[in-house]
Design a protein that fits this description.
mainly alpha; rod-shaped; single chain; 88 residues
């Protein structure tokens, strides 16, 4: 009688595999993701459209423009290209 009750309580490999497989699938279900909060904050930032010398437009964050500093005022185009390292 004792042997019969012990066999009923034993968990076989076949009994563990579905539980183990189900536990490994939990991360793929996506519980607890807060990705939507991050996208909302990035959409609230203001952008300003600037014109590049070649005629194309660029969107730049206003906060980046406020943080920028002027290195040297009224420089020539030639010295600016030298500073960038471009050859003309």
């Amino acid at each position: 009688m004792k042997n019969k009750s012990r066999k009923e309580r034993q968990i076989s490999r076949r009994g563990i595999l579905p539980v183990l497989g189900g536990a490994l699938l939990i991360p793929f279900l996506g519980f607890g993701n807060s990705v939507t909060e991050d996208t909302d904050t990035s959409q609230e930032e203001e952008y300003e459209t600037l014109l590049k010398p070649d005629g194309t437009t660029v969107k730049v964050k206003v906060s980046t423009l406020k943080k920028s500093k002027v290195v040297k005022k009224n420089i020539s185009n030639k010295s600016f290209l030298n500073w960038l390292g471009k050859k003309f």
